[in-house]
Every structure is written in structure tokens, then in C-alpha cells.
Amino acid sequence: MTTGVLWPHIASSLYRMICGLALALVTAVPVGMAAGRSRRWDALLSPFLYIFYSIPKVVFLPVIIVVLGLGDFPKIFIIAITVFFQIAIMVRDAAKAISEEQVMTMRSLCGTKWQDFRHLIWPACLPGILTALRTSLGIALALLFITETFAAFSGLGYFIMNRMEVRNYEEMYAAILTLAAIGIIAYMALDIAERKLCPWKK
Fold it and tell me: Which residues are in the ABC transmembrane type-1 domain (predicted)?
């Protein structure tokens, strides 16, 4: 780490993981909310969510690389689609748990749809979103490692395997510890975010 050898690989891995999680968030949250608040959308989307959730997405990595190429996007995409289903299901369950009494209370106060979302639906779903992200971190890091050992020339996964092949075990272990530290720091950050953003859960 003192030589700066790891920094470019850390940057590559962080970029892929953050982009993958962000892509999963911006797609899964609307899908989960739609399924949770509409019986029609729930009937349409839930079978697909459950079917594809149970399939290990990493088996599609060779196909994704063939279709999307060897750049960063295939690695980001495989992380995103894996985390997507976990977030979507948890958000759907949180949105579905909102009672009709709560909805009617908001309507009796002449709340608009935006106010319903801001003051009722979003606060109800936010803990589920953060919990899904926290539980998905381990999966995201594992996928990050796997994808970076497959047709990659940067990232901590690539660096670990490369250093193993050349028997530079000191740098290999340093990279492993760095990957573990990223997971711990990210988990702690989400835990802090949940306490700050969801004070009503205390």
C-alpha cells in the first residue's frame, strides 16, 4: 500500500461496486414500490422477481461479457442485476405493509400523491432499502472479486489473482485485507446512514 500499487485497483473496484449498487437502486426501488402499492403490478412483477431472484446470476457472466464486451459495464451490470432482485423484493414488502388506514389518514388531510410518497411511502420503504443494501454488500463484493478475475486487467480481484500467480504473497494478502476493509467500512456507513435517516426505527 505504501508504494501506491494498490490505489488504481482500489479505485477500479470501488467504481464498479458503487455503480453496480447505484444502478440496482435506481431501477429496483421504483419496481418494488410499484409492485407493493398496486395489486395489478404485483401480480405482473412478483413471479419474475421470485424466479430470477433464485437464479445465480454469475452463471450468466460469460454471456454478458460476450454481449457487452470486456469493459467495466459487464462487471457493473452483473452486480446490479444480482442486487436488484433483493432490493426490489424488500421494497415491495415494505410498500405492501403500508395499511389502508395510513393511506386514508393521509387522504383525509388532503395530501397529494407527492405528499403520500414523501411522508408515507418513502419513509416506510427506506429502512427496507438500507437493509437490502447492507445484506447485499457481501454478495456485491463476492461478485466484484469473481468478475475481476474474469477478463479484467484492473481491480482488487485481478490484483489478488495476479499476485498469487507470481507468488507475491505480501501484496496478495494486502489486497485481500483491503477488500475486506471496504466491506466493513461500507457496512458501517450504511448502519450509520440508517440510524440518521430512519430515527423512528430506534
Answer: 10-194
- Residues 187/134, Cβ–Cβ less than 8 Å: yes
- At a CB cut-off of 8 Å and minimum separation 6, what does 153 contact? none
Q: What does the alpha-carbon distance between residue 201 and residue 194 come to, in Å, rounded to a whole number?
A: 9
CB 75, CB 20: distance < 8 Å: yes
The predicted model scores a pTM of: 0.85
What is the domain range of residue 182?
A: 7-201
Residue listed under C-alpha cell 495476479: 162
Average pLDDT of the segment spanning 165-185: 92
Question: In the chain, how many domains are there?
Answer: 1
What is the DSSP secondary structure assignment for residue 56, as one 8-state letter? Answer: -
| Assigned domain for 1 exists | no
- Contact call for residues 160 and 175 (beta carbons, < 8 A): yes
pLDDT tens string 79-105: 999 899 989 999 999 888 877 777 777
